[in-house]
Amino acid sequence: MTQPQTPTAPAAASDEESLASSTNEASLARSVARSAEIEADLDVNPGRYRMLTGVRPTGNMHLGHFFGTMSSWATIQDRGVDTWILVADYQVITDRDAVGPIRERVLSLVADTLAVGVDPKRSTIFTHSAVPALNQLMLPFLSLVTESELHRNPTVKAELEATDGRAMSGLLLTYPVHQAADILFCQANLVPVGKDQLPHLEQARLIAQRFDKRYGRADRKRPVFRRPEALLGEATLLLGLDGEKMSKSRGNTIELRMTADETAKALRKAKTDSDRVITYDPVGRPEVSNLLLLASLCGAGAPEEIAERIGDGGAGRLKAVTTEAVNEFFAPVRARRSELLANEDHLLSVLRAGNEKANAVADETLDAVRTAMHMHY
Ligand code: TRP
């Protein structure tokens, strides 16, 4: 009896998968389930993973960043995962005309990163602009995506809308491809992301897949690129002090670098409501609940408990309690941060060591890419 022939080529279906699929419910559920599996595996097999995350140096880091992502970097590193942190300096110019005080911001970000516990001996901190081979991957990668695919990316669309009528730059349209290079150049297989960044990760996987399909070795047993996966954090969504989305440009943040007094001053201006009895009710009382959440994240107990303790103490008491919790929690981080900032040579040497390591890996990857493309002379 003849067996049905097993196709030798990889199934076409996954390659035909469109970017839009990452936004549908089923795909989201798959990502959530897979992320939970990885989360469980991290402690068993930390050596299987290389984690990459990126931050744009567009301003000062604030508590939204801290509780959203930064606090997890050192935790992941301490669990034994090879941790890479990219200071995405080229990504600054996706949606603006000037780089701003970029050098200060980059150094400040390096200080923040070290202050929250990232150890430069175990982890790699580097910048886009210092790693030419990473950026060169953008060329072959651009040939692997279509214009309509780029235009459909929901995150790019949202970011364009946030620029208030600015024309879409070529870099904004294609930055998901650059971001794919960020991830793929160092063979990272784990990227901590919020749900809004899932389309980017999907794009990176598609690029890896398409590259290997187009240029991969005939046996396809040793793909040039690893397939990155998402580590979906629990979304701790802190609002800004005005109750809107927390963002640098809105000026509604508490920054990591603020002093205790500046923190108190910012919190005194926070929006609340006129009900003197403090209750935790995120839907009905978002501003009050946001301050309770912030105090809770800083170790003051569960939000409901804090509310009960304050009782009819009103907004003034709530702000005082929150200020104390924030200042106490961040005191050691802030102290480390200012110590680090006073030593620019140290920050630069951390960055240079990271860049050197990133360059070594990037050169190797680009070499494999050029070999696969028969461009090795
Ligand atoms: N786009 C990310 C942000 O704005 C930063 C970033 C750049 C990134 N490259 C990355 C994140 C690669 C994850 C992976 O925060």
From TrEMBL:
What's the protein called, per UniProt? Tryptophan--tRNA ligase
The answer to whether UniProt assigns keyword ATP-binding to this entry is yes
GO MF annotations in UniProt: ATP binding; tryptophan-tRNA ligase activity
Q: Mind telling me which InterPro entries this protein's record contains? A: aa-tRNA-synth_I_CS, aa-tRNA-synth_Ic, Rossmann-like_a/b/a_fold, Trp-tRNA-ligase, Trp-tRNA_synthetase
Taxonomically, which superkingdom?
Bacteria
**Protein family according to the UniProt entry:** Belongs to the class-I aminoacyl-tRNA synthetase family.
Q: Which GO terms describe its biological process?
A: tryptophanyl-tRNA aminoacylation
Gene field: trpS
Keyword check for Ligase, yes or no.
Answer: yes
Q: What is its EC number?
A: 6.1.1.2
Q: Which GO terms describe its cellular component?
A: cytoplasm
A matching Pfam family: tRNA-synt_1b
Q: Where is the composition biased (Low complexity)?
A: 1-13
- Keyword entries, A-Z: Aminoacyl-tRNA synthetase, ATP-binding, Ligase, Nucleotide-binding, Protein biosynthesis
- Source organism: Actinomyces weissii
